[in-house]
Structures are given as structure tokens and as C-alpha cells.
Amino acid sequence: MPAVATDFETVIGLEVHCQLTTRSKMFCACSTDYAGAAPNTHVCPVCLGMPGVLPVINEQAIADIVMTGLALDCEITPFSKFDRKNYPYPDLMKGYQISQYDLPVCKGGSLEIQVEGHEPRRIGITRVHMEEDTARLLHRTDPVTGDGYSLVDVNRSGTPLMEIVSEPDMRTPAEAREYLVRLRQVLRYIGVSEANMEEGNFRCDANISLRPRGQAEFGTKVEIKNMNSFRAVHDALVFEEKRQAAALSAGEKLIQETRGWVDERNETVSQRSKEHANDYRYFPEPDLPPLRLSSAFVESVRARLPRLPAERKAELLDLGLSEHEAVTLSESRDRADYYDAVRAALTGGEPARAAKLAANWVLGEVLRWVNTTGRDIQDLPVTPDRLAELITMVGQGTVTAQAAKSVFETMAESGKTAADVVAEQGLAQISGSDELRDMVRAVIAANEKAVADYRAGKDSAIKFLIGQVMRETKGRANPALLQDLFTEELTEK
Ligand SMILES: [Zn+2]
Asked: What residue ranges define each of the domains in the chain, with the CATH number in brackets?
């Protein structure tokens, strides 16, 4: 009897379906803005699958998939075609789905990922193809008979759907989650999808198999479905990794099957044996001509491709920011744009100093506002120019760093400029030594212990004394001047 392996390597590939943000559907003029609309109100003979109607390709959807392909370093194929994927299910109005089988729009790309504490890795993208979404089924129970039944809402039917298939390049559930995070980030940067898994416009199926470490040949793969969050994808893969390892270690044979993730029970359950491509009886869609993409079209899309997260992050690192700062500031395109605008508006100083000052403010007060209000950064009343003005006022000593935080808060609430808030609230920094000297003397008189500590050589006692004046002036006193005044008052007698 051959020895049973106990040390396995995990092999994971992901298939992501993501809805595009086009205004109309993939093959008809129906609006895709059906969220909250009454069922079956965003429909027409085409997306209802009536006989005799003809689909028309949505050009914007093709531009979006080309942009996705470019962002993922794919080859954009000049000739692709649509195919019918046949299967009977009540959510499929025509009895087939228009998809792409052997000639997708994009193929052969990659995406770099980096799990914290590990080296970056490049995950291959096999293909990106175009298809149409299905109708939505709503499962109900009859209150009288207790029988189950389903309702069909066709509003979603025909919404452009892009499928992004990875190579089986991931080796851990953590890598799979990181791949999804980075893929979502790219899709949002280029603005082709909201890519929100909880809302169902970004869906993921996973393929996972195990093989004895060192073996080149893949093991039997299992497809997992029904995962509705990044956490669910991670947990389902962890569960499946353990289940398969236990079975293989016990000398059992795995079967190729589809399993569903049951969130409440934290486990996968067998759904059906895996279907094969030939079960779908794919054939070329006779109602659509092949898709020929001119290089002029591809170049026009490339010209609109924004700078991607990896590039933005690298730029921030070049400015001297830390890895953490660069990752956080380049998290979303809006955030990176806001930061860059603040930095650009801080003229006159050292570029590295401006980069650091802007980073401190955006990572501090600005993100605090975003997190507490739950609003988008572009809704912040403190525009990049206004924030830069406030930062400049701190640099010039018009307002102290401490008071500037409360100025920022007022600016965010009122939409006023820093200069107006400082003037209205009397927050201008106190830099007059006569005005401060009286306060310094009063504080010295009232704090004998700290004064004695200071004279006994405890230098830190002066910080306590400065703090007293700061409290009295609500943070408006010039700290450097206070330091001088205290040193002067305490040493000369
Ligand atoms: Zn329609």
C-alpha cells in the first residue's frame, strides 16, 4: 500500500463576477438603475427573452471591460465573440445566457498582491469576459399551505456582468482575500463597478484543491459558492482546506463537486457534482456579430485609464512617506486625489515637508471626519485648498497646532475658511510676550511644587507649567515663546 501524504499544498483560483456601472443593460436600452424599483418595471422584450427580438451590444460595457483588461495587464483581443451558455433555470429568461466561451475580450493578465508580513506575489489572470446577469429569484412560503414558491424579478436580467477568472496561483486563504481586496480596489479606481460584495454587485466563487507538497499535478478541485463577504470567502477556504486535508490524510478520494458555504454553520455542504463545459452546449450566438475591436478604440480607452493604486502608492513612498501612510492614502482614488491636492497647494516649503504635513492632516483630522460622519471625502466642506490654508497658518504661527484642530472641526461643520474661523473665535495665536509674561508669573506663583522640581533639576516640570498656560489660553499661546519665558522667569532669580 502506498504511503498516504500528510503535508499538502493548497491551490486556489477565484472567479469573480462583477456588475458594471453602465447606465443601460448589456443588450437593450433598459435602465440599470433599478435599485428600490418595483419588480419587473425595468424590462423590455429583449431582457424578458421574448422570441424574435434582437440584442444590441452596449458599447460602454465593452469600453469598461477593455479598461479592466488594461488595468490588469491583459492582452486585449482584437477579435472576440459571444456564445450561448444553455441551462434551464427560472432566473434565465431565454433559457440561455449570452456569455463568451473560447474567445474572451481580455486574456493573460496579472495582479500583484501582498499579504502583510510576506513578499509581494503576482497572481495570474486567465481571462476577463463579458456576459449578462440573470433575473433575481425571491423565495417565499405560502402562509396558508406552508408550501414554498418563488417569484421572479426580471429587473436585473441583462445587466452587464464581467467575469474575471484568476489562474490557480493562490496558496493560502489569506492570499485569496488579499486578491479580492486588491481587485476590488482596481475596479473602483477605474470606476467600472461599485464592486460591493454585500450588495451583490461583486460575487466570488472559489476553486480549491490540495496536492502533496512537491507534486506538480493538481489534486481534485472543489468549487465553493454562496459566499457573501470577503470574510466568508476566507473562512470557507479555511474550512475546505482542513476538510480536504483530513480526507486525503485518511486515504480517502475526493470527488469533484460544487459545495455551498453555510455562514450560520461555518461549513461547506455538497450541492451537486461539478458540471462540465459541455453540459452547457455552448455555441456561437447567432444574433450577434463577432466583436472586432479597433486599435483606435483600445487606445481611446487606454488614454482614459487613471493612475492605478500600485503606482499611486509608489509615488507616495518616493515622497518619503512610510509604507503604512502610503497604503492608507492610496486606498481609494478619491483619497489619493484629495491628498495630492492638499500637498500641491502647500507651496513654498520643502516638498518632503509638505508631503509629511499633508499626510499628517489627511490621516488624522480628515479621516477622522470621514469615519465619524460615514461620508465620502469629496463631501468634506474643508476642500484641499482650505486645508492647505489652515496648515500654512500653523506654519506661519498665526494659529497653534493645538487650536488648529478645533479650527478644522468648525470648518468642517460650517464650511467657513480657516481665516474666518480664527477671526470669529479669537483663536489667533498669542505671541505677545507682555500678555503671556503675566500669565507665566501667575502660574509660577500658583505651582510651588513644580517650580521646586524644576529648580531641583527636573527639566520636565517646565512642560507641566507650559501646560497650565496652554489650558488657560485654550491652546492659543505660542509654545516656543512660553518655553523661553518660563526659562527666563525661573532662572534669573
Ligand atoms: Zn430590456
From this structure: 8-300 (no CATH), 307-407 (no CATH), 433-491 (1.10.10.410)
